[in-house]
Write a structure and sequence with these properties.
Largest sheet of chain A: none
Structural class of chain B: mainly alpha
Structural class of chain A: mainly alpha
Strand content of chain A: under 5%
CATH architecture of the largest domain in chain A: Up-down Bundle
CATH class of the largest domain in chain A: Mainly Alpha
Oligomer: heterodimer
Radius of gyration of chain A: 19 Å
Shape of chain B: globular
Number of helices of chain B: 19
Shape of chain A: flat
Largest interface: A-B, 42 and 48 residues
Number of strands of chain A: 1
Strand order of the largest sheet of chain B: 1-2
Order of helices and strands of chain A: HHHHHHHHE
Largest sheet of chain B: 2 strands, antiparallel
Strand content of chain B: under 5%
Distance between the termini of chain B: 98 Å
Number of domains of chain A: 2
Helix content of chain A: 55-70%
């Protein structure tokens, strides 16, 4: 139970201080990816930061973008991820994996993990956006085929939810 | 006076070949089509499962100059009426106070819808590859900009010239307090601009505009006029004149994908999801706004819904698309059932949660209660008696120390919020079709109120992560939340929302709410 203000609160203050401590692009990159894995998407490790994760992620991204601006030259800025990997190669590899994927739950993980690993400022926007479009297109295709074939009971089971109550 | 040789030559030439004084619009349109890029190889920025045909036509064939001329005439008439005659006859103060409150919701919310429609049609422009189809979407983008301004202007007009400005002005600052905004953003924002571009078109044009603008933008003008409001019809009917073009765009979206193999695999699923998304919010909210937000009644919402949603849209409009493989949504029958009681259920909750709003609500008078019972037999036994009890406990009076939310807690009627639609529901009290189902997924509990929404969440859970107010404010005292999130008037203490529209009635302040010691809790924690 979070008995504090929405906008100015101790959780945001604590994370603002942590973000302020990031001094290199490498540390910012690791910090952002780790944060996204733990605190964002339906696959997150914990919902502890449920109220503030979006604001905090945004502030980390701002900081990483500034560090990127300070450390990368123009060519690196347009073509490389903040970890040093070639952006197009990373994107092509994920798109190829998605192309070969025929299971919607696997495709969902591929897409979510791509966003965790690569969402800007980690990957340059010009490369990320098109790869994200291709991944999203395939995921939507897989999800929408035979949409009504399974009953709700079967779908709940397949999704792996724990039913608390059904009226 | 002597003229130069060049001028003489030009004059002589014109005498033989007269310069055109007017140009046939259709010729210009055809001519403009030749100025086209190679859209066939265009790479859209947005994902879609469908392939839009490269030779899709557009029915209106408007060019920018014709468009601007037409719209400027409409604007002249509209703003001329508003600023001249309607101001002189003091029209804004002749509106029934209940309806004045209703327009705080309708125009502010529609403004959000129109604003998101700008983005949606921009996205469709980018996604389409046929020049004519792009032209149709572009005209709609311009329309949506116009409509956003018009909706904003309605609230501005009521603020400047009318009664009780609070809530007409700057309503958006209260957007995180109550549940009504979030449901609205689900249909008007997420539905229009996220996901598959064609699915967005289906949400916006095929369902939002072809199905719900009749009950929304046309019916609202009848209810407004009946309640003394001449401002809303002046603006909203002008908006509606553009909606035909948007419905046509939705139709052409379907035509453009009709020959694509993907259409048969995905189209009816997308249509059903879009219909359920839109109706889940609009059916109860519009019914509630019309019937409970007015004093003078037009016709029961269930009849309006039946005529325009079920028969005109579900039957005739979708029927016309049958040749392209489009079927009436599977959920249409369930929606029809909901159209009878859902808005009554919603008002019960909206009134209970009144301090979280940005408008004033009023319990039905005895005369209005008779109308409800006559048109919805069984209404009094279920809802009317509850309102009588609330009124007897002084729910309108700040000195009573009672808000109806307390009644729900005392009588063990927990209020839940549907994760997908964000619409609140009370399963132990509703007469509508809502039923409670709660799951836990990856440590997070999610609440749903119907099969269709639950299936949508099971298919793509990352789309529906929006927190509800019980999750956001659990453990916090109500007046603190209202104060932090700016739900007060310019004196800094009186609530914008009130449980009555009586101008002699006492207004509730933050202190009155604080005295109740009402603390938010999340009902799913108890499960």
């Amino acid at each position: 139970m979070a008995n504090y203000n929405i906008h100015d609160n101790p959780v945001r203050d604590e994370w603002t201080a942590k973000i302020g401590g990031l001094k290199t692009l490498a540390s910012g990159h690791d910090f952002l990816k780790d944060f996204r894995k733990k605190h964002t998407t339906p696959l997150r490790a914990t919902y502890d930061l449920e109220l503030d994760w979006g604001w905090i992620e945004c502030k980390i991204e701002e900081k990483v973008a500034l560090l990127k601006h300070a450390e990368l030259n123009d060519d690196q800025f347009k073509n490389y991820c903040t970890c040093g990997a070639n952006a197009q190669e990373v994107a092509d590899a994920v798109v190829a994996k998605m192309g070969a994927c025929s299971d919607k739950y696997e495709a969902e993980k591929l897409h979510i993990n791509f966003r965790i690993d690569c969402k800007p400022p980690i990957m340059p926007t010009n490369v990320f956006m098109d790869a994200d479009r291709l991944l999203g297109t395939k995921l939507m295709e897989l999800r929408n085929i035979n949409y009504y074939d399974l009953s709700l009971e079967e779908l709940r089971k397949e999704r792996g939810v724990k039913v608390i109550t059904i009226q | 006076m002597a003229i130069s040789a060049a001028t003489k030559a030009a004059t002589d030439a014109l005498a033989v070949n007269r310069a055109p004084t007017s140009v046939n619009a259709q010729e210009v349109h055809r001519w403009l089509q030749s100025f086209t890029w190679d859209f066939d190889k265009n790479r859209t920025k947005y994902p879609t499962k469908y392939k839009m045909a490269n030779d899709t036509k557009e029915q209106f064939k408007l060019i920018a100059k014709e468009y601007a001329r037409m719209e400027s005439v409409k604007d002249e008439r509209q703003f001329g009426s508003l600023q001249d005659v309607l101001t002189r006859v003091d029209a804004a103060n002749k509106v029934h106070p209940k309806w004045n409150e209703t327009m705080k919701v309708i125009s502010n919310f529609l403004e959000v819808g129109e604003y998101n429609a700008i983005a949606a049609t921009g996205m469709l422009w980018d996604s389409a590859s046929a020049p004519e189809q792009k032209n149709g979407y572009l005209a709609q983008t311009l329309d949506e900009i116009r409509h956003t301004n018009q909706c904003g202007y309605v609230n501005y007009y009521f603020t400047k010239h009318g009664q009780d400005a609070a809530g007409h002005n700057d309503a958006r600052r209260t957007r995180t307090i109550g549940p009504l905004w979030k449901g609205m953003k689900r249909v008007f924002s997420d539905g229009f601009i996220s996901g598959d571009a064609v699915e967005c078109s289906i949400n916006l044009q095929l369902v939002g505009e072809a199905c719900f603008t009749n009950p929304l933008i046309v019916a609202v003008t009848e209810w407004a006029a009946a309640n003394g409001d001449e401002i809303t019809p002046t603006v909203f009917l002008s908006i509606e004149t553009d909606e035909l073009r948007h419905m046509a765009n939705g139709y052409q979206t379907i035509v453009s994908i009709a020959n694509d193999e993907a259409a048969s695999k995905y189209l009816n699923t997308d249509l059903n999801n879009a219909f359920w998304t839109q109706q889940k919010y609009f059916t109860p909210v519009l019914g509630m706004m019309f019937e409970y937000g007015s004093h003078f009644k037009v016709e029961p919402w269930v009849k309006t819904w039946n005529r325009w949603v079920y028969e005109d849209w579900g039957g005739i409009w979708i029927g016309r698309l049958g040749k392209y493989g489009v079927e009436s949504p599977r959920s249409l029958r369930d929606a029809k059932v909901d159209a009878y009681w859902a808005h009554h259920d919603l008002f019960l909750l909206a009134y209970a949660l009144w301090p979280t709003g940005f408008f004033r609500l009023t319990l039905p008078t005895a005369e209005e209660a008779d109308w409800f019972e006559e048109n919805y037999p069984g209404w009094h036994e279920h809802y009317g008696k509850i309102y009588e009890e609330w009124r007897a406990r002084g729910c309108e009076d700040p000195n009573s120390g009672f808000i109806p939310l307390m009644w729900f807690i005392e009588n063990n009627h927990p209020i839940y919020i549907d994760r997908v639609s964000q619409v609140p529901f009370c399963p132990s009290l509703c007469k509508g079709a809502s039923t409670l189902r709660v799951h836990e997924y990856n440590g997070k509990k999610n609440t749903f109120s119907d099969d269709w929404g639950e299936r949508m969440w099971l298919a793509e859970p990352e789309r529906y992560e929006c927190q509800n107010m019980f999750e956001q404010y659990a453990g916090r005292e109500l007046s603190e939340v209202i104060a932090e999130l700016q739900g007060v008037r310019s004196d800094g203490k009186t609530l914008i929302a009130q449980p009555h529209t009586n101008k002699d009635g006492k207004m509730w302040t933050l202190d009155d709410i604080k005295a109740l010691d009402c603390v938010f809790s999340d009902p799913v924690d108890a499960l």
